[in-house]
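@channel anyone free to eyeball this complex?
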Amino acid sequence: MRLSRFFLPTLKEVPAEAKIASHQLMLRAGMIRQSSAGIYSWLPLGFRVLKKIEQIVREEQDATGFQEMLMPTIQPADLWRESGRYDDYGKEMLRITDRHNRDMLYGPTNEELITDIFRRSVHSYKDLPTLLYHIQWKFRDEVRPRFGIMRGREFLMKDSYSFDLDFESARRSYNKMFVAYLRTFARMGLKAIPMRADTGPIGGDLSHEFIVLADTGESEVFCDAALLEIDVLAETVDYEDDLEPLIERWTGPYAAVDDKHDPADFEARVPEDRRIKGRGIEVGQVFYFGSKYSKSMGASVAGANGEEVDVEMGSYGIGVSRLVGAIVEASHDDGGIIWPASVAPFDIGLLNLKAGDAACDKAAQDLYESLRIAGLDVLLDDTSERAGAKFATMDLIGLPKQVVIGPRGLKAGVVEIKDRATGKRFELSPEAALSYLTA
Ligand code: P5A
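replying in thread with the prediction:
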């Protein structure tokens, strides 16, 4: 992509309405624009990151045996009357009346809709477990939408649902998802801490929130530093044998607690030099709620002996759009965003410091083509801005690697490579730069 044609409306000033770094940087980097309170448009740079995150989430769901589908944003109120949540949900639910005067709503979550699909199609224990998910926009009329897309009213969620025959297999589904979440966040360069949680309006009696440490986060977390040392991506998980010990490591003696639980207990069991107390952002939450919805909505199957059994359910959410903000919050400096490579909107920013100069244009064009042929996503700054402005923009939008091509370097036969995260710079010949970047 050429920067001269890329829609990237960056801002020089820090927007006054943005109180935290991620919101400021996402506005300044031309990633999002507010359309009304808590409702945002995703501009091309932001949309690229959102899609990258969504894809990582999708891959880990698929690998865990959940199947992707797509449910609508608009739901009939009657289903929510069946579960009893239509009145419970209160003002947070956006209620809509269609032209036939039917009560509809913009879904804040999908337990009712998925249970309706399930009960109409699955009738035998032989079809369990049924494991489904979708990635769809939700609407919650939050009292205080704030921090940009972090607490929006419209937001993108991945929500999964499991239907099992009994408690044991339902717990297995829960545990599998638990590990999938650890892997998902680790792939985005995040250390997410699972914490026992209240179930709120979703209901049920077992729940964990996944919290990313950040000073501006809304949740309080106490955790053992030993948890952050575990490398979940290096763990090989054989679901049958390794799941329980792995879960035990995260939820057992090292487990995090929040202020609703017992900080004294935390101090009793975690040595002082390993105590992490801080704030964090909730990027996901998992729930086991047994037969809460299956009972009220009549989702049962015939068991092995022919008796009708209410199915055991769980639901599992990830804030896909919130994750964009959480990653920026966790990874930035004074110059701007520092994208982990796995979610970066482009792999490489290629700066032509003297667009219009024949040698610079040719060197930039050649390297651009070669990198693209090697499968890398490159943003080529071919504009005639001054060098200082080009550097500032590249730092702001945070691409992991920068390659700088200028007339002086070219005379010496080199280009400069800069690593955005470490700030380290070094020079290489264009050919060596190509092999370095494609290695
Ligand atoms: C689990 C999936 C649920 O709704 N039902 C289906 C369950 N859980 S949840 O915790 O309420 O939401 C899941 C994740 O969505 C993100 N989230 C938000 N993101 C941005 N703005 C909001 N207003 C918002 N509300 C929830 C969070 O990451 C949450 O963990």
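from a first look: The two ends are 21 Å apart (CA to CA).
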